[in-house]
Amino acid sequence: SEHASFYDSSKPWGELTEIGVLNYFKGSPFYSTRSNNEKLRVNEGPEALKKMMGAEYVVDTALSSPPQLWVIRYQWRADASQVSLLKLFYMIHGVVYASPTPLLLVESRLSKASHHLHRAFDSTRRAFDLARRAGADDAEELPPVSNGNGMGFLPPPLLPLLPPPAR
Length: 167
Hints:
Helix content is 28%, strand content 22%. The protein is built from 3 helices and 7 strands. The protein has helices at 18-26, 36-39, 102-134, and strands at residues 5-7, 54-59, 69-77, 83-92, 95-98, 145-146, 152-153. The strands form 2 sheets. A 5-stranded antiparallel beta sheet has the order 1-5-4-3-2, covered by helices on one side. A two-stranded antiparallel ribbon has the order 6-7. The protein is elongated and about 80 Å long. The N and C termini lie far apart (65 Å).
């Protein structure tokens, strides 16, 4: 979603109940007016959602720690007992956040790993290039290589290829 978070300073959030959390969440840009919650009549409670099929918002009481943390599940209900999670939202001290998807988490981790590998290869290449210019012939003559975090390491020594052991 294009929105990172939502906060409504005009509404108190400190003493919210499950229903109050969903009403607060309803004012956020994350809320879909096409959900089953929107279709319910005012006099029907959250139990009526279990009789409907489609997208719905429910407070996950097992993961919530009121009043500081509320977790809201956006899920697809196939029948009274079968639901599939679509998205998670969480509210901390009145600020609603969309939880990242597993795909976004993997993409982020891969991007960071790629960045660090690129830096490590660049650092190693520069060290070998400097050593070559200085006339080093093997790894024992190479200077220590830095990983960019202030920690250095020596390249492994070059080992001669040994013939396989006799049988």
